[in-house]
Amino acid sequence: MASKIDFKDIAQEVLEGKYEQVSGTDATFLYAESPTSPMHIATLLVVEGSLNFKDFKKIVASKLHLMPKFRQRLMRVPMDLDYPYWVDDPNFELDLHLNRMKLADPSNWESLRRTTSRIFSAPLDLRRPLWSIHFIEGIDEIPQVPKGSVAIVSKVHHVMIDGSSGVGLLGTLFEKDDKVKPIDKSKIKKFQPDPLPDDLSLLLKSSYGFFKNPLKLPKSVANTAIALVKTRASKTLSIQKEFATARYPVPNTIFNGNISPKRTWGTAILSFDRVNGLRKLAGGSINDVVLAICAGALRRYLLEKEKLPMQPLVANVPISIRAENDTSHNNQIANMMIQLATHIEEPLERLEYIQEQTMLGKARHKTMGAKTLVKMADAVPFGLANLAARIYSKYNIKDLHRPPFNVTITNVPGPKNTLYLNGHKVVAMFPLTPVVNGFGLIIAAFSYNGNISITPTSDAKTMPDAYLFSRYIRESANELEKLILARDKKKTPAKEAKKKSESTVFFNALKRYLKKETALVKKYKGLYHIGVDMGESSECWEIDLTKEPISIKKTTALDPKMLMEIEDENLYALYKKKFLFDELKIQQRLKLSGTVADKRKFSNLIKAFLSR
Predict the structure, then answer these.
(1) CA 362 to chain centre
(2) Domain O-acyltransferase WSD1 C-terminal: where (predicted)?
């Protein structure tokens, strides 16, 4: 006789919220999975010395209770009517996730790179907990790595973690000193999996979630609409327009075709102090310098293949919106779109262009609200995201439109100090990231223990020579460093040096802007001058919009017919949107001289530029 269904128990299970559901953002990584695009993140670790496999296995086993999802698997809702749920895997076996192997001869870097590529190319089993570790012994011929060292290749599905939470996992597995700590078995919690829910339970839980918040979709859309209205209204507050692909067309490149299942990758290791030194000399952020280095390598790579488009490549730059005290392992990321200035030959001018783009992107992102963007993924009703992803891939819809971006460049700050595993030093870490049809190149910058590794991941069809591109990354960094240092040496000795103008970027950006805005030049045709006070010295700039081509340059004489006087630091702050034009005018921190008509024209010209 069949057992009766206890609806009371099922209802209680639903109300208790026993099972965690995959978020809309996490689900996008699950639905993007395909035979050519396994959606896992990998990390290659090189560990110094002969680490014993049995000891390593004990360490992993002792830490599993601290990472619940590593013993959970996904369970789909019947007919995919809602996002899947994380459930305990009653059949979990650690041996199914740990793999021991020896590096093939010759046991050098090239052999390790090929082996890692093969491991990374293989998909994870979606019926089990979504991770695996390969323990590779016998590294004997890599310079600066002791003979007999080991490599560890870990794979974790992107539905489980993002880059920042992945860094958090390292703190769980590794130690901060070289002392061998005995495993305290008393602190290890025995795995007692909860019973698997039945289909009816999952259906009721999904239905309960919907009826509990039936306006989830309208609320998210309404919140996004409000954010967009605020964005439009903020034009008068010197906040730029949304990134528009019509105005900034994204070119088609060799990185935006169909991919093959075989992964390729390479890496360039740079000193963090070296990159940070360039950041200090050039201004901006570490991320700006990394983007400029990658842009230089991309330009050279495409030039040599005669595939460089006239328009600048556009990078998708993921940014973490995770709170500092958030230790959850789910994905909390948003994206900025940055033009990489690959159409500009001169590296310093390219860096300056990128600095302006990132500044604009951060302001756009701040105005929109990162959490509003993430909520949009959760607002997709039930299985539509799954269906849309499958249709997009199956019918190559990407071929019917321009790509939204060309390449992803992600910068994840890792541990600053040395990590150890059972007393053995972790020499280096290299992140490998998933690629999909239409987006065949992703570049991951990861900092660890005084170095930044910049690792491009692609496939055998898109970039079979990833090792060559990695060399171009190193050479791009060398070229940029040489030019920045040479520019710095041209300055007079520190004691006699004039104060460096910070606001030069304002005039360079204004010139690029007006070259594109021909209608604006005609509207505000005229001759304008700006005097920049730098304390012990000053600079005079002339903005000539009376002829073609327009001219913005330093001059030795100011024309009082139309003159703006401002301190250097205030002009730079105005460019960085820390002040408003009218705010500085009211506070008399900028002074305008000239006719009423000329002052109005000039003011409107500058406001249009600042609100771009």
Answers:
(1) 13
(2) 331-480
Q: Which of 61-65, 330-334, 480-484, 586-590 has the lowest mean pLDDT?
A: 330-334
pLDDT interval class at 442 (50, 70, 90): very high
Model confidence at 595: pLDDT above 50: yes
* β strands within 373-450, DSSP E: 407-413, 420-421, 424-432, 442-448
Mean pLDDT of 154-159: 90
Helix (H) or strand (E) run with residue 568 in it:
helix 568-575
pLDDT the model gives residue 573: 85
In three-state form (DSSP H/G/I as H, E/B as E, the rest C), the secondary structure along 254-306 is HHHCCCCCCEEECCEEEEHHHHHHHHHHHCCCHHHHHHHHHHHHHHHHHHHCC
Supply the mean pLDDT for the chain.
79
Whole-model pTM: value is 0.71
- Give the span between the Cα atoms of 290 and 268, in whole angstroms: 12
Distances 544 to 470, 516, 555, 557 between C-alpha atoms, Å: 43, 15, 11, 14
Residue with tokens 């990231």: 433
For 22, the token pair is 């995959």
Beta-sheet strands, E only, within 194-265: 263-265
CB atoms within 10 A of CB 536: 7
Exposure letters 408-439 (e unless 16+ CB within 10 A, then b): bbbbbbbbeebbbbbebbbbbbbbbbbbbbbb
Residue 401 pLDDT: 56
φ, ψ for residue 86 (rounded to 5)? -85, 125
DSSP, collapsed to helix, strand or coil, labels residue 36 as: coil
Identify whether 549 is preceded by a cis peptide bond (ω within 30 of 0): yes
Alpha carbons within 13 angstroms on the beta-carbon side of residue 405 total 18
The answer to whether residue 343 scores a pLDDT higher than 90 is: yes
pLDDT at 225: 42
